[in-house]
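Objective 1.3, modelling of assemblies. Example input:
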Amino acid sequence: MSAALRVENLNKSFHEPEDFQVLFDISFTVNKGEFVPVIGKSGCGKSTLLYLLSTLDTDYQGKIFINDQLLTGESQNNLARFRNENIGFVFQFHFLLPEFTVLENVMLPALKLGKLSRKEIEEQAIDKLRQLQMDTFAHKLSSRLSGGQQQRVAIARALINNPTIIMADEPTGNLDSVNTGLVFDIFRELSHQKGITILTVTHDLDFAKNADRVIEMVDGRIKI
Amino acid sequence: MVDTLIAKRHLMANKKQTLVAMLGVTFGIAMFILMISFMIGVNQFMEDTMLSSTPDIHIYNDIKTDYTVSIAGDYFKDKNLLVSVRHPKPKQVNLNIKNASGIINDLQHDPEITRVSPFLSTQVFYNYGPVQINGYINGVNIIDESKIFDLRSKMIVGQPEDLLNADKGIIMGRGLASKLNLSAGDMVTLTTPAGTSMSFRVVGIFAIGIGTIDDTRSYINLANVQQLMGKDRSYITDINIKLTNNKLAPSKAGELYKKYNYKSDDWQTANSSVMASNIVRDVLTYVVSITLLTVAGFGIYNIMNMTIQNKMKDIAILKAQGFSGHDIVRIFLSQSLFIGFFGALMGEVLGFLLSYALSRVPFPHNDFISLKYFPVIFNPAHYFFGLVFGVITPFIAGLMPSIKASRIDPVVILRG
Ligand SMILES: Nc1ncnc2c1ncn2[C@@H]1O[C@H](COP(=O)(O)OP(=O)(O)OP(=O)(O)O)[C@@H](O)[C@H]1O
Ligand SMILES: [Mg+2]
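Predicted structure (tokens):
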């Protein structure tokens, strides 16, 4: 199996308000199609790690590879392009664009990528929404949906460019247990049936137990 | 493409705010169009009036009061003597242009000159019954003179050619004719300062639109004036000149002065106070317009800053999904350009309507200026500049906020 994600000796410090090291010598590999929850106490550095892996935060020491491509040191423009094509995001607070319909929200990253025609993108977007049972809401304004519905739309949006890896930061943090179960079922299905790598920060230990493998963090280090 | 889609959505989502920003530009551009159309209209009117009363170049014999040469020197022959004369009297001078026919012939062959009109001007008293009024007559070749000043269009009664057909005809200014209570066909007697007098029949009446001229001037055939003054047929005092390009008048006048050594006034120098007020109007127009556009620019700057403040989350999410800094700049800059372009377009329409309305407003009646309506000029170049300003202003106003937006660190926003 080839590695979807590989990190070597990641160190991260904040300098404001004072020098404070958050991540220490983090190295691990996630294979293609693996579903890996990241757990750990509040403040141990999970979100910080995820922002590094997602290439949004480039202020760190060490190396990050996605699809065996070294991303450390790439220009902001190249990283933006890479994110667009290879990484899907799901955040705790759904973060859909409120002026756009559900369908348009899902379509935007593909329109940005510009590889397909508008019509093809629309078909794919409907298809992704159908996978998440949200196709009936396609033409609703995204701000009119419930939290759980919004999160499913956010997942459909993360899938639109068929990324190698989906990164999620507490995607179920704001959801009730029914919706939480639903989201994790979807993740499991995506990784096992579609071969998409999924890395998700979570506090839900029940759920973590069912995963292939768990990365547990303690005070900025990985516990093996 | 996606960027413009997002920009459009942002604009549509805040219709009121977009409209307010647009109206700022609309108002600025409309005022610019109105002011410049009116001010240039006034300038044009002034210039037209000036040109209908002032030739491009006017050559004449300035009365030279030359006191440097004294006959005292001749009288006291002795070279070692210093003679000082207090209050000398100027020599009697003839006001005519010497070698006039040579100069006129010379001027007529100059390629930069389209028309030459020599004339003889003198002060006279107009007598009609007991009424006696002080004024001027110009003895002219009426064909040449009317080509320079377009007299034909200024005639209220008769035609310029009527002067040639009549035996001793006179074409009078409107104000003068009405003061003397004269109309076409009446006789009027002119008396020169030297005391000679002669009668003329009114064959035409003109109105140039400038009181000081219409109230004092009339035209008579050159030969008649020479006769009236007892001068020979070569006696003329002035030459009016029309150029192919009247903007070249000042330099040409200097050239002619050097060549013939007679005073040569170009129309701009002759009307320097009018030219100065033209410049003042131009400057005023630009100052007011730039001020209005700057205010509109600040309006856009504020609104863009507000929009970006409200859209921080969206910017972060777009960046996380792979939109680059350039995309973000494009999204927000295109919004302010849209506001500018359509605001300016509306401003042009409003400006046109206001200018048109002004051009239909009757000008308050005035004896000195013959104007029916407010003078307004419709020049496509002004509209073009309006559009250019309307796009440049929001571009500058939107650039800084847009760049600021592109620099937003998504991690800071996503952490909350
Ligand atoms: N911008 C920052 N400047 C300084 N310190 C920061 C900054 N962001 C995070 N930290 C610190 O870094 C540490 C790790 O934060 P992080 O958000 O990664 O924790 P976390 O594991 O995601 O916690 P939680 O489970 O509560 O979300 C915390 O101690 C936090 O205070
Ligand atoms: Mg966190």
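Residues A 14, 16, 20, 22, 40, 42-48 surround adenosine-5'-triphosphate (ligand 1) (CB under 6 Å).
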